[in-house]
Write a structure and sequence with these properties.
Blueprint lengths: L3 E5 L3 H12 L3 E5 L11 E4 L1 H9 L3 H6 L2 E2 L6 E4 L5 E5 L6 E4 H9 L4 E2 L15 E4 L6 H7 L6 E13 L6 E5 L2 E9 L2 E8 L9 H9 L6 H7 L6 E7 L7 E2 L2 E3 L2 H4 L8 H18 L3 H31 L4 H11 L2 E2 L1 H6 L2
Parallel strand pairs: 1-2, 1-9, 2-8, 5-11, 6-17, 9-16
Antiparallel strand pairs: 3-7, 4-7, 5-6, 10-13, 10-14, 11-12, 12-13, 15-16
Helix pairs in contact: 1-4, 1-9, 2-9, 6-7, 9-10
The structure holds flavin-adenine dinucleotide.
Flavin-adenine dinucleotide (FAD) binds next to helix 1, strand 3, strand 10, helix 8 and helix 9.
Organism: Arthrobacter livingstonensis
Keywords: Monooxygenase, Oxidoreductase
InterPro entries: FAD-bd, FAD-dep_Monooxygenase_BioMet, FAD/NAD-bd_sf
């Protein structure tokens, strides 16, 4: 079927949904409160399902050519702050990294997108054939549908992230009690980093000195990255997730991306799932005879899978930063030995 849709939010999920619906012949308008697409941002890891969704949206090749393939950076590792490798990780060659601005620019190309257009009253849009809430972790559309009960809740952790010029000697993650630091390639001549602490509330700037104090003695590229970090480019925020929703649809409204399943970032899957949501929503509505039928199919296809992913991501964060039992964890990881096919095992869930 075809109709007219309004998408609230021009992030990864909203733009993916808009492209997918437009490909099925829908008239789609995206309303985004920001004044323009972001010019800066860190890298997002894209797993094979996300690339398949991008192929379905007709932009897979453009995204591949604007991204770095993790396999090209060699094997990454899980390490201790002292530099001991617990596990060598093989991303299976399927993981691509792309900067968020580059991904959004590709997705936005050709989409009817209004910037500086904040939707203040979601209920006022109830008359459209389809309303897509792609308005992120603090989604007002979700609040309209489910009330305050499913609001974002803190994960009790904060993150700092950014990119630095140049490549780094070793990629991967370093795990310590209550803290972790990750480094990935971000492009042919830049690297992406993120640092996490299990602290409540955010920290005041300057961040660089604080990061040096906490992580500056860590090996395996961490100190090397921190030397190159520019204070002005550091992003810092608390981490949130939302509880599992009873449905991703209600009446003529669908939730996609973080609005539906904002999750801990420890598996790097939130944007991937938002892309898959968008493609699935377009497919389900394109194939259905009515909006209700299409939305029911979308909910069946996406809710259980993404809620499982969110639970795994939360558990991954707890495992990475556990304060008790980490010696046993490290021994167990070491005993897993060889190349842990993390990439392969996570890809197909
Ligand atoms: C530290 C960290 C690392 C991550 N790394 C990865 C990774 O490697 N790979 C990965 O797949 N995911 C990753 N993620 C997750 C990913 O960033 C999110 O899941 C993804 O951006 C969600 O996209 P979205 O479009 O659903 O929401 P958002 O990106 O939040 O977009 C929502 C949009 O809606 C707009 N909006 C909100 N309210 C309104 C309104 N009332 N009117 C108009 N516009 C509105 C906002 O301005 C925004 O542009 C990471 C997240 C974090 C925190």
């Amino acid at each position: 079927m075809k109709g007219n849709a309004v998408v609230i939010g021009g992030g990864v999920g909203g733009l993916a949904a808009a492209r997918a619906l437009a490909l099925k012949g829908w008239g789609v308008a995206v309303r985004e409160r920001s004044p323009a697409l972001p010019a800066t941002g860190t890298a997002l890891g894209l797993w094979p399902e996300a690339l398949a969704a991008l192929d379905e949206l007709g932009v897979g090749e453009k995204v591949r050519s604007a991204s770095a393939r993790v396999a090209d950076a060699g094997t990454a590792g899980l390490r201790t702050p002292g530099g001991r490798t617990l596990v060598s990780m093989n991303a299976g060659g399927g993981l691509h990294l792309i900067s968020r601005p580059a991904l959004l620019a590709v997705l936005a190309d050709g989409v009817d997108l209004d910037f500086g257009d904040e939707v203040a009253d979601q209920r006022g849009l109830a008359g459209v054939d389809l309303l897509v809430g792609a308005d992120g972790t603090n989604s007002a559309t979700r609040r309209m549908v489910f009330g305050e009960r499913y609001g974002a809740r803190t994960l009790g952790a904060v993150v700092w992230r950014g990119t630095v010029d140049g490549t780094v000697g070793s990629y991967g993650e370093t795990w310590a009690p209550g803290a972790m630091f990750g480094i990935t390639p971000a492009g042919p001549d830049s690297s992406n980093w993120y640092a996490c602490l299990d602290a409540g509330g955010t920290f005041k700037p300057p961040h660089r000195q604080h990061l040096q104090d906490v992580f500056g003695s860590w090996r395996s590229g961490v100190a090397e990255v921190l030397e190159r970090v520019d204070e002005a480019s550091i992003l810092h925020h608390e981490l949130f997730e939302i509880p599992p929703l009873p449905s991703y649809v209600n009446g003529n409204t669908a939730l996609v991306g973080d609005a539906a399943h904002s999750m801990a970032p420890f598996l790097g899957r939130g944007a991937c799932e938002a892309l898959v949501d968008g493609a699935a929503l377009g497919r389900c509505l394109g194939e259905a005879a009515t909006v209700a039928e299409g939305l029911a199919a979308y909910d069946r296809l996406r809710r259980a899978k993404t809620q499982r992913m969110a639970a795994m991501s939360r558990r991954m964060g707890r495992l990475a930063m556990m304060r008790h039992g980490f010696v046993a964890r490290n021994v167990a990881l070491g005993a897993a030995g060889g190349v842990l096919r993390l990439g392969a095992s996570l890809r197909h869930r």
